[in-house]
Amino acid sequence: MNNQEKNTYSKDELLKATISLLSTKGLKDVSISELTSRANVSRATFYRNFNSIEDILIRHHYFLANDLEIRCKRKNVSTIADFFYELTKHQLENKTFYTILYKENLLYVILETILTRIKSHLIDDSNIEKYGLNFISFGLFGFIYTWIKDDMNISPEELLELIKKHYSANTNINDMFLKF
Predict the structure, then answer these.
(1) Separation of first and last alpha carbons in the chain
(2) Residue scoring higher pLDDT (153 or 118)
(3) Which of 6, 21, 150, 158 has a 20 to 30 Å separation from 144 between CA atoms?
(4) Contacts for 56-59 with beta carbons within 8 Å, 24 or more apart?
(5) Mean per-residue pLDDT, 61-71
(6) Which residues contact 24 (CB under 8 A, 6 or more apart)?
(7) pLDDT tens for residues 93-137?
(8) Using CA atoms, how far apart are residues 90 and 85, in angstroms rounded to an integer?
(9) Would the CA dihedral through 118, 137, 155, 103 be positive or negative?
(10) How far apart are CA 36 and CA 102, in angstroms?
(11) 172: which strand partners?
């Protein structure tokens, strides 16, 4: 195994150990020593890659967001309904991770990711675009927050039907952003 492969392996093991530990105890109750022991890596390896246990979760969320974006592009997702469906399926597949974020009051990570990604769609710095995109960002975050808080007890299919009742199933995501 070369150095890059070893580093990737170590990060993966740290992530698995973090999720395992945080599934049974709180973030404040997990020490770096306990985490590195569980992951079978050194403290130096941990600190070479991360600043904190929270940093592991933040970076993993960015990875999941990229994965969702790739998934949506691959499936040629262009409507609001299809996007919400893919989003909820993706989050349900990663339910343990999102439940940990909720339990540890780290859902702000999701909001920051949404704001960063949606703001990348700004064509200009006009108030209509800034406020419109923030309106959409916080609305999306509210949707996600409520669903995670409710333990994802409504299926992606049921959520899709709820969304279709409020938006045309063919509403284009970009049209929604620009028509605010």
Answers:
(1) 52
(2) 153
(3) 21
(4) 56/14, 56/15, 56/18, 57/18, 57/97, 57/100, 57/101, 57/104, 57/106, 57/109, 58/106, 58/109
(5) 94
(6) none
(7) 999 999 999 999 999 999 998 888 877 766 666 777 778 788 888
(8) 9
(9) positive
(10) 23
(11) 79
